[in-house]
Design goal:
CATH topology of the largest domain: Rossmann fold
Strand order of the largest sheet: 3-2-1-4-5
CATH architecture of the largest domain: 3-Layer(aba) Sandwich
Strand content: 5-15%
CATH class of the largest domain: Alpha Beta
Order of helices and strands: EHHEHHEHEEHHHHHHHH
Shape: elongated
Number of strands: 5
Structural class: alpha/beta
CATH superfamily of the largest domain: 5'-nuclease
Length: 299
């Protein structure tokens, strides 16, 4: 594809990461006109301002998690994410306010009670990849790296540069398209995905570098004992015994690419200033952030 025919990059934001970061790093002295904490909203607003100023996106979407306990994955495996403490009441309210702000800035917001933000991003990724766009996934979550093609990027904004396919392969020790199988083997304590008991990250990397994918590992597990790695025979036995755990873990870690969306339009729109000014006043944002928000809303 020539430079002239390339379509603008589509930026897909995993919003929860940046809301959480703000919630746990900003001063809790910040409150809105109702006396409610709004430090996460303030921090998220600053993130959006910086991001839009830097990238001037034409195509941009923000996905929010509303399916932390009601995801279809909870039906498959009730213990999925059961190790997480419930979100504090003030954080739940601030998530809603962050959604309001995002919409007021002309950015498409996606949230669903059955599909997680990862699935909504995965579906948008699939849609816009098929339309010829390169994609930049804005997240710190390695799960989302599984979406990255050689023409895409994964960006832990504020903490690293955008990482492409090769850089992610170096970072995680497996290719982005192997991340799902990697989690199926090594598990993920953050999401309470079991994986194969006794298989750690290094072993999972060795297995995938040799066999390429989970299906090949499970169908050819008898070959594992001949690999030149410590505990090869024991590893073979673990794979043999825990094949169903590996398959379940892959179901849990695999991002959905066809979640139902009411609308897949992610072109940034110029926002109306009056509702945004009302929101800014409600949040008691200072003059500098007010000016910046009004500026990026008109981009």
């Amino acid at each position: 594809m020539s430079e002239a025919s390339k379509k603008p990059t589509a930026f897909l934001i995993d919003s929860s990461v940046f809301v959480f970061r703000s919630y746990y790093s900003m001063s809790t002295d910040l409150v809105d006109v109702h006396g409610n904490n709004n430090h996460a909203v303030y921090g998220f607003a600053r993130f959006l301002v910086r991001f839009i100023k830097q990238n001037k996106p034409k195509y941009i979407a923000a996905a929010f998690d509303e399916a932390l306990t009601t995801s279809f994955r909870n039906e498959i495996y009730p213990l999925y994410k059961a190790n997480r403490d419930p979100a504090p009441a003030d954080l739940k309210l601030q998530f809603k306010q962050c959604q309001r702000l995002t919409k007021l800035l002309g950015i498409s917001v996606f949230a669903d009670n059955s599909y997680e933000a990862d699935d909504l991003i995965g579906t948008l990724h699939q849609t816009y990849a098929e339309r010829g766009h390169n994609i930049c996934v804005i997240s710190a979550d390695k799960d989302l790296a599984q979406l990255v093609r050689p023409s895409d990027w994964w960006w832990d904004y504020g903490k690293s540069e955008p990482l492409g396919f090769e850089a992610l392969t170096q970072k995680f020790g497996v290719r982005p398209d192997q991340i799902c199988d990697f989690l199926a083997l090594a598990g993920d304590a953050v999401d309470n995905i079991p994986g194969v008991k006794g298989i750690g990250t290094k072993t999972a990397q060795i297995l995938l570098n040799h066999f390429n994918d989970l299906d090949a590992i499970l169908s050819r597990y008898k070959e594992i004992e001949f690999l030149s790695m410590r505990g090869a025979k024991s590893c073979q036995n673990k794979i043999k015994i825990h094949q169903e755990d590996a398959k379940l873990s892959k179901q849990l870690s695999q991002i959905v690419l066809d979640a139902p969306l009411e609308n897949d339009d992610i072109i940034k729109s110029k926002a109306s200033q009056e509702p945004l000014i009302s929101f800014i006043e409600e949040m008691k944002f200072g003059p500098m952030l007010r000016r910046e928000l009004l500026e990026v809303a008109s981009v």
